[in-house]
Records
---
Amino acid sequence: MNTRYIDLINQTFYFPQDEFKLEDKNLQFHDIDLMQLVEDYGTPLKFTYLPQISNNINRAKGWFAKALKKHKYKGKYHYCYCTKSSHFKHVLNEALKNDIHIETSSAFDIDIVQKLKSEGKLTDKTYVICNGFKRDKYISNIANLINNGHKNCIPIIDNYEEIDLLSQSIKKKFDIGVRIASEEEPKFEFYTSRLGIGYKNILPFYRSQIRDNKKVKLKMLHFFINTGIRDNAYYWNELSKCLKVYTSLKHICPTLDSLNIGGGFPIKNSLAFDYDYEYMVDEIINQVKLFCEQEEVPVPNIFTEFGSFTVGESGGAIYEVLYQKQQNDREKWNMINSSFITTLPDTWAINKRFIMLPINRWYDSYERVLLGGLTCDSDDYYNSEQHMNAIYLPKYNKEKPLYLGFFNIGAYQETIGGFGGLQHCLIPSPKHILIDRDENGEIKTELFSEQQKSEDLLKILGYNE
């Protein structure tokens, strides 16, 4: 009778997979010995596997290069990284090894740009796409960047006042983009995105504020939908509406030469994950070319802004099961030595699910459980997987420690969780490990941050001077 955890996985999924395999009965992630990581650093811990950032960037660039060649597409492709997904220096350092550009969301992002420029990691020719609602500090930082000679900074106009605000601070002629306020899927609580300018208003806006303005040059139309790039009727319909605006605008605006199709490539969130990236890229390029040919306008340069796709699959967390509580006849709670609210806030805030697998004990029998965090908050739990409505793990045995890994958590968790700050119920942030490879391909690890200490939190709270 197949009652072992490994039997469950083999019966349910294709396993092993590219990044996951077993070695000496323990789980490995990109050939990283996770049990060795536990022995070296203890738990709870988070880690970032830096090479996966470069890997995903180059996968996407390869898909677009192939599609452009296949369709004899005359425009260029530019890959941008959305800094809001993870602002950490080690992330930007890795991403910028790959000849990419960046997208910013707020004033302090521009300070990061200036720092990277001073270190020679960005140049004046690097595209800096400035999204978001802009007020005083963001406006002045963008203006400083452009006034000091950054040639490819493109503020994306989000509302009707921003052109005037930028013009007052920028001393020279500058490029701009305009963001389309896309219509959201019917299940959303609102119909039209709060970001950007509505489809029907973009041409009148161009005629009234941009066409005769000698200080600004419209270069880019920016398109993004909240649910991301997916092969469904909603996405293709919104893309078609975007292309109609682009071609109509191109007929009256010769400087317009770029289309930003935003981001939203999904990342792997289940062992059953199935997404044909290459097909989607190919079809997007095909649709853009066909639409432009039909409307008799040149094809645009294509920009993408990938945040989660760039960095998400580089991150992981490892916890230990401390204890099992049998709360009634059916429910068993495995208590982890950390908190989901503080370390994986997306699981609590938007019910997001990540790949969750045990690190060890794959050859033991399994049971259905719920996972509970250490806080005294009833919402601090994790109870289902992306591919099924339950969690199955090797049976709890107080004599045999069980370690759990959560994978592809590299986007947003640190910033949403308030890295380095106060945590719910004062549960400390875990230590964070950076994992890289040397010139010979050997794994090397580095401690990025220690687990928070009591004095760190007391100082923030005002108890320690």
Note: The domain at 73-306 is CATH 3.20.20.10 (TIM Barrel).
---
Amino acid sequence: MHWRGIAGVADCRVHKAVASQVDWRAVREDFPILRQRVRGHDLIYFDSAASSQKPRAVIEALRNFYERDNANVHRGLHTLSGRATEAYEHARQRVAEYIGAASADEIIFTRGTTESINLVAQAWGEKFLGEGDVILLTAMEHHSNLVPWQLLAERKGARLQFLPVRDDGTLDIEKLHSLLTPEVKLFAFTHISNSLGTINPVADLCAKARAVGALTLVDAAQSAGHMPLDVQELGCDFLAFSGHKMCAPTGIGVLYGRAELLDSTPPWQGGGEMIVSVTLEKSTFKKPPHRFEAGTPNIAGAVGLAAAIDYIDAIGRPAIFEHDSELARYAADRVSELPGTRVFGPKEERGALVGFVMDAAHPHDLTTFADQYGLALRGGHHCNQPLMRRFNVPGTTRASFYFYNTTEEIDRMVEILHAAVQFFK
């Protein structure tokens, strides 16, 4: 692809020279959807935190699977089933390599981040959490990393506690020593906030949790496609992410779990594929990961995810992180110039998004106005209602970026937002 190669770069704080070795204009040409016009204007897609666009390589991988290899996996002895199984299990191995898992058996395919977290809550949580146990979360969690734990706490008599968020959008780490006690059985938190862009110190948080005997779950939905990520270096016990936010199809996601934890966790759903033997009275179950993949899986989705990983790695995640971070910093500075605008999140290092409110209009109205000019933003609470209440706003307008976006598009966004100020005035 469009990458001239720098080997062995693992630190996110890479030199700008890394990103400069990528022909970003050529990369952008790999995304056919970006060539269209919307309402008479060139499309500017700033909604990748909700779902990214797909490169031609992923689209072709899906088409090739359905045209050549389509069959059910694991159960058939014919040629097409063998090909499909090989492609599906290759995708599992590819994911393991991508996130630094010790084994492909630590990779469970799900529908996405939400299902991955629900799997942990309902399978692991039902067995290992009890009355009085504490689940520690943060006040910036997406609903998918909040509601499953609320439901579990209600069922089991467990308690929820929350690490606060400071005014600058960072976690109040100083409060952690009083919250992270031996009563905490699980500490679940996001890697990058989907509303603030805050990049949390995952390895440090996992180490602190481990010191008191707590397990950790990391929501990597906003980080897996944007930056280098190694679960063994982070020291997390579980990690969840979605394919559709990192160039893969919708409906495919990943749950990573340490092998010994998965081995001790009972099945979540029952059905075909996840069993060893079934009688009318009793069933025995396969070892992980197949124990947690009941029924026919999203085979094509896994194939598309493997293709997306190959595509991302060909560019290089250090380069992607630097490129996206530069866009986010530039956008935060430019949006701050607008009259009556409040930008949320850290001023320095941030993930690939900017959330803001403008005195001129409600986020829904602003997003609707922007669409008239071909600009795709997202307005609302972003499945972060408690966080919005923390900052005393009904919602924000969010511009989120990926490596196919440009500073010229950000300049055009600012022009459109200036026009919105005048319109709503």
Note: Confidence is low (pLDDT under 50) at residues 1-15.
---
Amino acid sequence: MALQALETLLYSVEDGIATVTLNRPDKLNAFTTRMRDEMIAVFDETDADDAVRAVIITGAGRGFCAGADLSAGGKTFDYASRSESAREESRVGEVYRDGGGLTTLRIYRSLKPVIGAINGPAVGIGVTMQLPMDIRLASTEARFGFVFARRGIVPEAASTWFLSRVVGMQTALEWCFTGRVFNAQEALERGLVRSVHAPADLMPAARALAREIADNTAPVSVALTRQMLWRMAGQDHPMKAHRIDSRAVQARGQSADAREGVSSFLEKRQPVYPNRVSTDMPAFFPWWDEPPFE
């Protein structure tokens, strides 16, 4: 998908920071199949573009994302009732793949750090899409809700894997069992967000965090670190991490980036890292086998 054809998102890159804005403000940025496809295309772009060092995701208008677009009424979540083309593109055997999960799995695979700037209400897919983002900042106007049980469905977007890892099992179960909407302060206290900001301060805070990454760190090291941390979170023994750590430290220790990192530190100057994510990832990357959809 050409990014010039975006209909539900805004996309820009400035000084190494990509900003993705959910852009259906008249619908509180409600999620659609088109938005799913555009989100996946945008992350393909940010991974391929060495000029992008970090990604910020936010919403246009007063909402972040009000969840799935419910304009289809009671058939909203009945995949079999959709048009033939919409059904077939997500069908594997007798199962229709969840569009939210396709989105979050693509964010999970990102090679660039992802920062959520949650500017307003975020419920359903509006909150589950945040879980594979690496760091989330919230406006005081933000509201969150895992409302699925109140809609007669269940958590989606692979959130049953992500949520308990982010906030712990007890909180994950409470939020999903009750389906209640809660405020930014509770999200902060339970660990869903890193910080809460006045509305006017949210994007400057997100950009300052992205700037810290873009100005000071080696992009290949960050890409490796992101995948190492996420993928080791589910392993059953630290030896799994030790094996990858050892290969990564050896590969990076021989790199031009490592020489530049040490030299710039000793010379007390800003580093200029030569290695690029598009061309210089180590030979063992990726080291995992993605499980098939069954």
Note: The longest strand covers residues 9-14.
---
Amino acid sequence: MFLSAFPLMAVTSCRAWLDVDSEDRILEDKLFSSTDGFYTALNGVYVDLVNRDLYSGTLGPLTADVLAQYWNTEADSHLYGSLSLLLPEAKRTAVNGLWTRAYFLILNINKIISHCDDKRGTVLNEKDYSIIKGEALALRALLHFELLRYFGPVFSVSAGKDAIPYVTEPEPQVNPILPAMSVISKLNSDITEAIGLLEEYDPVLVYGKNETDNSGRNIYAYRNLRMNCFAVKALGARVNMYLSYLNDYRGKALAYAEEVIREASAFFPFSTREEVSGQAATGNVNVSAQDRILSSDILFAVYNIKRGADIYEYLFSPSLQINRLLSVTGSGYRSIYPEESDLRTYQWTARKDVAGNDIMCFVKYEGMEVDGKSYPYMIPVLRMSEMFLIAAECYAVEGKEDLAYERLNTLRNARQTSKVTSAIEAEIENEYVREFVGEGQYFWFCKRKNYHSLSCLYDRSRPDRNISTEDYVFELPQSEGGFRE
């Protein structure tokens, strides 16, 4: 069943509309006979993004961050120890659910896109058609890119290598595995079309996030919980930055990033210390109301009403047994955050594990409730801060160091750390490490760069982890989730 989640519109329809027998075809036709039905179907996709095989785990705080060596997995028989060692079987197991779940949702999305075109001008007016199809195209691109990062090659080494299918049909069928560059072409095509549709009608361009509950159809509100126009452009920056060793793609990434910075900064400003500490939420500093995810500049997040249980209690709570707890040592924490003023330090606290060891516990996703606020349930997917880092890196590669430092130091100032004036490339990488803990981005930075060693972030006294180009690539599931059987 599709689930419901505040503040998305309640979802009441079954997943049966994906089936192809005559009874379910009737249900499908009924679902797409009204605008509300279209939004019900689209909301069902958003709700399913919180699955642990997607952004509550594999695409968020778990798999990629274990691979990036954030977490201490040295305990005997640690649940994620083999994955941190990049052992093939552990890698296969870690992403089996991702493949199946992502392509299932892509078929959902393709159904929506197909019916959008059929019902344009009858069931759907131009505004709803543009927003629904634009968001659907963006979600299709987002999920395919997540799959590409796991299963595709290191582009700077073998951009022509086969990667994944790019599925655009609404019915299950065998789809060819495409070369990685062909996947990028299709990604950019979907992103361009999505932007063209959303630029016409997306309320985010006028009202920003519009975090106002209308106690009904919130289809035009909470735009930071949907693939809004700014988020799609940010995705365009991320996709093209993945090929930044090529001038044309780096230029596209920079253009997208600067466009988002220019157009969206007023609507998605960086968080203040008062907001992060909880003071803005209550009028007094209140630890239980801390905005630990620094939500203000999040361009798109998925919304998980069980975030505390699904992520914190499952991965980071000090009450977990040592062989499944993910944490860092005190020295590891201090090496990541050398400045106490850094707002991102609110995402951590010193605690003891069940054996009485001192650890730094990751509390970014700890459960909390704050009246009228969405951030206790958000899992970040795309941030404004990434646009500043992409711009900084592009300028640095082009030898425009003044512009590179300006973009980098804008972010550092926002996070209340000191200005830097040297070692621009190293400082950009340091910000990736600090900024995206629990969001699964730093490992892909390393893959893009084709690093052959990964720093042991949870304890810098430990030796680096050696990694080969082949280690960055995950094997396609043998059955490919039923899509090529």
Note: The domain at 1-228 is CATH 1.25.40.390 (Serine Threonine Protein Phosphatase 5, Tetratricopeptide repeat).
